[in-house]
Amino acid sequence: MQGGTVAVIGGSIAGCAMASAAVRAGADEVVVLERTRGRLADRGLGLCVHDDRAAELAAAGALPSGIPAHRLERRRWVVREPGAEGGRLIWEQPFPFHSYHWGLLWRGLRAATPDGVRYRQGVTVAGVAADAGGAAEVRTADGSVERYDLAVGADGYRSVVREAVCPDSRPHYAGYVCWRGNLDAARLTELDGGTDPHPEAVTTVCFAGGSCVIYRIPGPDGPRVNWVLYAPPPRDGALRYDDPTSFPPGALTPELRGHLRALLEREFPPYWGRALALTDPADTFVQPIYDLETERTTAGRLLLAGDAATVVRPHNTSGAAKALQDATAFAAAWRRADSWEKLLGTYQAARGPAGRELVALARRLGRAQVERTPPWARMSGDEVAAWWRTQLAGAPGIGGQALAP
C-alpha cells in the first residue's frame, strides 16, 4: 500500500520510531505532534536493550547505528553481609545487553527521522476520533482540528489516543515505588577503592521487600552510573499516586531524601549505599509503579504504540525494545497491506498479544523481586537460579521477545 497521511501523537522514542517507519513504508505525509517545547534529549534515564533484540532492530532499520551504548555482560546478585563492603555474591548470570542514555538514544532516533517528517513541538493534542468519512480527526488544545488517514498514539502513559481506542483501560498501581537516579561515574573515586569494581556488570542489591539494579550507561559528558531501586512506599503520605512521576528530578522533599538515605544505610552493602548517596538531588526522583494492558491496540483509523499500548513494569528491561519492535511491525504490516483495515488488523494480531505477555512477565518479576521477596541471604546459587526460572515461567528471558518472522 502506498500513500496516505499519518499523524504521530508524541515525539519521544516510540514517536520517532513510528514516524520513520511510516515514511519507510510509503506514507505521503507524516506529522509528529509533540507537546513538549524543550529538549527531550535532556532526560538522563538509563535503559538496556538485549543484544539479540538490538541486532534484529538494526537489521530492520529501526535502531540506527552510532548511538552511544555501554556493553554489559553479566548480572551479579548480592546481599548485605557484615565485613563485605560490596556485599556477598549469591548468584551470577549472563546478561547480554547494551545500556543506553535515554536522551542520547532519543537524539539518535530523532536525527535518523527522514527529512520529510514534520516534527511540530509545542502542540498538545486534546483528543482524537473517527470523522464521518472514517479517517482520523485530531483535535489540538487550541481548538483546531486536523484530519489524517491514520493517527498513531505514541503519547505514553497518559495517552489521549488510548482513551479513544480503549476508554476502559486504566493503569493499575502495583503497590510499590521506584527510586531512580544517575551520577557521574568519576564520582566513584570519592569512595574507598576508587572505582566501580564491575563496570561490565549489572549489580542487583537484594533485601527483604525490595531490590535495586545498578549499571553503567554512556552520558553526554562521559560514563554515568544508573540505578533503579524498588521498595515499598513511604508511609507518611508523602507520595501522590495519580501520576507516574510524583516527584520528578530535583523535586524530592527533605522527608523523601531522608527516607531514601535511611533505606540505603539500612539495606545496602556499604559500598553501594555510599555510591548511590553520591547522586545529586537534581538527578534523583521517585515514582509509583504502574502497569496497564489493553484489549486492543487499534480501533478505526487509530493505532497505539509504545507505552500508549502497554505500560510494563521496568523489571523486564523491555520498554525501548518494545517501542522499536512496534514500529518494525507497523512498517511490515503496511508493506503487506492493500488497505488501512488490513494494515491495522495485521498490526493488532502481531503486537496485541506481545504487549500482554510482557505485562504478565513483568508482574511476575515484580512480585518475586519486591512484593514477595525470598530469603535471599539463605539461598544457594542453585536455589536462586531455580527461583529465577520460576519467575520466567517458560519465557526465554527478559528484554522482550524475538520479532515474529
In short:
With 405 residues, this protein is an alpha/beta fold. It has nine helices and 17 strands.
Keywords:
405 residues; alpha/beta; FAD/NAD(P)-binding domain; six-stranded mixed β-sheet; 9 helices; 31% helix; 28% strand; globular
CATH class of the largest domain: Alpha Beta
Structural Rg:
21 Å
Query: Under CATH, the topology of the largest domain is which?
Result: FAD/NAD(P)-binding domain
- The shape, in one word, is globular
The secondary structure category is alpha/beta
EC number: 1.14.13.113
Keywords: Oxidoreductase
Organism: Streptomyces lavendulae subsp. lavendulae
Protein name: FAD-dependent urate hydroxylase
What can you tell me about this protein's structure?
The protein is α/β, with parallel strands linked by helices. It folds into two domains: about 5-50 and about 110-170 and about 290-370, 3-Layer(bba) Sandwich (FAD/NAD(P)-binding domain), CATH 3.50.50.60; about 70-105 and about 175-290, D-Amino Acid Oxidase, Chain A, domain 2 (2-Layer Sandwich). Helix content is about 30%, strand content about 30%. It is built from nine helices and 17 strands. The chain has helices at about 15-25, 50-60, 100-110, 160-165, 255-265, 270-275, 320-335, 340-370, 380-390; strands at about 5-10, 30-35, 45-50, 70-80, 90-100, 120, 125-130, 135-140, 145-150, 150-155, 170-185, 200-205, 210-215, 225-230, 285-290, 300, 300-305. It has an eight-stranded mixed beta sheet with strand order 3-5-4-12-13-14-11-15. Strands 6-2-1-10-17-16 form a six-stranded mixed beta sheet. A hairpin with an 8-residue loop joins strand 4 (about 70-80) and strand 5. It is globular. The two termini are about 20 Å apart. The model has no long low-confidence stretch (mean pLDDT about 95). It holds the Pfam family FAD_binding_3. Its EC number is 1.14.13.113. This is FAD-dependent urate hydroxylase. Keywords: Oxidoreductase.
